[in-house]
Amino acid sequence: MRLSLLVIGRTTDKHVHALIDDYASRLQHYVPFSLDVIPELKSTRAMSVEQQKAAEAELIRKQLQPGDHVVLLDEHGAERRSMEFAQWLQKRMAAGARRIVFIVGGPYGFDSSIHALANEEMSLSQMTFSHQLIRVLFVEQLYRAQTILRGEPYHHE
């Protein structure tokens, strides 16, 4: 079982990048993890929002493999507390998928074709965060879930 976070656009802030690296390295002690980056689209000024989402969707589909359990990190998805997320993750990992792929979409969200192929959608908050910060928050939550499942003292309920 592998966990993957698929994002569009590289992390530009070195401090954010350092935090992501820190939590990703901690997470690697529990489960194989990768942060996969799809380069940002170029020359988007001439493209409509729908064209941008369709182009991003094509790039996302190229990163997916048969048997992946695909979870969109989307504002309209189900919200879970950290304990609930840990239990959900444990069930998904035991279900036998080779890889769980969490996807952060581009600035306009996901194309309808990506919504259609996703197994589920999850929201991290009702608040809006930058795409840079969502990466840190989510990798930290993956790490937190692993410590919860092992009864380690990182999480306090």
Q: What is the CATH-assigned architecture?
A: 3-Layer(aba) Sandwich
Average predicted confidence as pLDDT: 95
In whole angstroms, the N-to-C terminal distance is 27 Å
Q: What is the number of helical segments per DSSP (H or I, 4+ residues)?
A: 5
Fourth-level CATH superfamily:
SPOUT methyltransferase, trefoil knot domain
In the CATH scheme, the class would be: Alpha Beta
**Helix proportion range:** 40-55%
Sheet-strand content, in percent, reads 15-25%
Which radius of gyration do the C-alpha atoms yield?
15 Å
The CATH topology label is Alpha/beta knot
The structural domain count equals 1
Low-confidence stretches: none
Largest sheet: 5 strands, parallel
Describe the structure.
There is one protein chain. This protein is α/β, with parallel strands linked by helices and 157 residues long. The protein has a single domain, classed as Alpha/beta knot, CATH 3.40.1280.10. The protein has five helices and five strands; from the N terminus they run E-H-E-H-E-H-E-H-E-H. It has helices at residues 14-27, 49-63, 82-94, 112-117, 131-149, and strands spanning 2-8, 33-38, 69-79, 99-104, 120-123. It has a five-stranded parallel sheet with strand order 2-1-4-3-5. Strand 1, helix 1 and strand 2 form a beta-alpha-beta unit. Helix 1 (14-27) runs parallel beside helix 5 (131-149) and helix 3 packs across helix 5 (131-149). The longest helix is centred in the C-terminal third of the chain and has 19 residues, at 131-149. It is globular and about 50 Å long. The model has no long low-confidence stretch (mean pLDDT 95).
